[in-house]
Design a protein that fits this description.
Elements lengths: L12 H9 L7 H11 L4 E4 L6 H12 L9 E4 L3 H14 L8 E4 L5 H9 L4 E4 L1 H9 L10 E4 L2 H6 L3 H9 L6 E6 L4 H10 L4 E4 L5
Parallel strand pairs: 1-6, 1-7, 2-4, 2-5, 3-4, 5-6
Helix pairs in contact: 2-3, 3-4, 6-8
The structure holds adenosine-5'-diphosphate and magnesium ion (MG).
Family: Belongs to the DEAD box helicase family.
Protein name: ATP-dependent RNA helicase DbpA
Organism: Eoetvoesiella caeni
């Protein structure tokens, strides 16, 4: 049996307090299934429909691993669109509130690149980005992913549908080989299976929906 209280997990007292303040009283099913594995450092593929609480599942994993005293980029979350990246950044900021001074930067297309480059020079613990713009920063060497601990592919099915697969391959090559990779998806078609095999290391699968 999987316990559904956050306090059954090895999370810091500060994070647990913050979850209480957010009134997250129990884990959603996808959180209950994926969080224990994520906190153990495993690569995880988690499939669950929209609204099932996937952001907090990887967000708590990132915050659990994060070393606040080091200003290098330790986590990268890739999202298909600017709107989704903003939503993820907002939820991460809510989850991180107990630990102030965690810097979360969004890097998306449609915004001028210069201010993003300047922000990167000041350091960002967590980057939430769309693949195209992140690739642009990698090519300009304005982003340093060498200290990355966690890579999250959020809404991976949509990223692949939108034609970002080749960008993802290039981005993953710029990440350290030793890292935790988490893949979240609403569906689990063949191309996601293929992407998982390429980007993840012996992943554990958590699936709450039947495949159509
Ligand atoms: P998904 O990415 O699976 O579509 P989200 O991560 O956006 O879902 O979460 C949907 C909503 O549920 C958000 O408003 C979030 O704040 C809320 N939520 C997530 N986890 C919990 C929880 N354990 N208890 C209560 N609300 C939660
Ligand atoms: Mg989501």
């Amino acid at each position: 049996m999987t316990s559904s209280t956050f306090s059954s997990l090895p999370l810091s007292p500060a994070l647990l307090e913050n979850l209480e303040r957010l009134e997250y009283r129990s884990m959603t099913p996808i959180q209950a299934q994926s969080l224990p594995l994520i906190l153990q450092g495993k690569d995880v593929i988690a499939q669950g429909k929209t609204g099932s609480g996937k952001t907090a599942a990887f967000g708590l994993g990132i915050l659990h691993t994060l070393k606040q005293a080091w200003f290098g980029t330790q986590a990268l979350v890739l999202c298909p669109t600017r709107e989704l990246a903003e939503q993820v950044a907002t939820e991460l900021r809510r989850l991180a509130r107990a630990a102030d001074n965690i810097k979360i930067l969004t890097l998306c297309g449609g915004a001028p690149i210069r201010p993003q480059i300047e922000s990167l020079q000041h350091g960002a613990h967590i980057i939430v980005a769309t693949p195209g713009r992140l690739l642009d920063h990698i090519e300009r060497a304005s982003v340093d992913l060498s200290g990355l601990k966690t890579l999250v592919l959020d809404e991976a099915d949509r990223m692949v549908d939108m034609g970002f697969y080749d960008d993802l391959v290039t981005i993953v090559k710029a990440c350290p080989i030793r890292r935790q990779t988490l893949l979240f998806s609403a569906t689990y078609p063949d191309n996601i299976r293929k992407a998982s095999a390429r980007f993840l290391n012996r992943p554990v699968e958590v699936r709450l929906e039947s495949v159509h």
